[in-house]
Amino acid sequence: MKIKDITQFLEELAPSNYQESYDNSGLIVGDPNKEVHKALISLDCTEAVVEDAIEKGCDIIISHHPIVFSGMKRFNGKNYVERTIIKAIKHDIALYAIHTNLDNIAGGVSSKMADKLGLENQAILRPKAGLLKKLVVYVPRTHVEEVRNALFEAGAGAIGDYDECSYNTVGYGTFRPLEGANPAIGAVGSQERVEETKIEVIFPVQRERKILVSMLAAHPYEEVAYHIISLDNSLSSVGSGAIGNLKTPMREEEFLAFLKEQFQLQVIRHTSLSGKPIKRVALCGGAGGFLLNDAKRSGADIFITADYKYHEFFDAEEEIVIADIGHFESEQFTQELLLEVITKKFANFAVLLTEIDTNPIKYYS
């Protein structure tokens, strides 16, 4: 198997255009056409993790956090980032990161947290906008089914739990082929009037090229009349955080003890308790403070995330309980998630979890 076989699968699962603007998900080190035989999964990519990969005979490391976030001008080993890159290149180990694009999908990082707490009726806490487009194309009556099916097969017309969605309007089109044209219908110099159907379908932006290629291949016209519209609609299956309900409400102290046990936490930093039962739970793996207002609007009783600063705890305003469980701790099950999806897809490919604890934060008790 080649590196690109793995990366293409992961980018189908969590498309690269789902990542945030500051992120650097994707293949950071390595040749996409290189053969690989064993992968190591880790939350972070560090020198110790590369050493672990060397010892285990792994030729690719798949991490959640990218080792490189911004541009680098020198590689002289002056910091852990440069040393990690140098060691990986020296030992021909590919580095791949799947970060905020994995955060931003249903079934991703926050969903895995919700699963660990047994939350029901899960949904994205803040759906992401700007990821959908609409294609409008005009097709002669004789080829409507052929073109429409080609669009569906290429990934257009999927909305939530439905697929093959389209809107069709019957009308007629006019055109006059000029010198040099090779019309499928009509003759050069004569105006034609043809019964046509206007097909409208919605599609995710990353499938645009494939959809257009399929449409043009199925369409009989030499010059196809179509246009594409960018949509502001949010995509319900893509976005930040997760929200869900406990099967049975718990007292706040009881829920915090349950959270501590399920996530094997040493400590939970939290705001004052309200004395109300916990039923609805909002979560975000990593630094999720930007979602606090979304958690409030969703009716959550508690918001579980990480990396809260002192003054930010005041923003709870006694409307919700904020629980900071730590960055590593909130994302620790991401490794398990990646192991599950990769081994399910590539049953005969060796995938291992690193034995290195990459959490840079330690607790003294």
UniProtKB/TrEMBL annotation:
Keyword terms: Metal-binding
Record carries keyword Hydrolase: no
Coiled coil: none
Gene3D superfamilies: 3.30.70.120, NIF3 (NGG1p interacting factor 3)-like
Domain of life (superkingdom): Bacteria
One Pfam family in the UniProt entry: DUF34_NIF3
Matching InterPro entries: DUF34/NIF3, DUF34/NIF3_bac, DUF34/NIF3_sf, N-reg_PII/ATP_PRibTrfase_C
NCBIfam families in UniProt: YbgI_SA1388
Similarity comment: Belongs to the GTP cyclohydrolase I type 2/NIF3 family.
Protein name, entry field: GTP cyclohydrolase 1 type 2 homolog
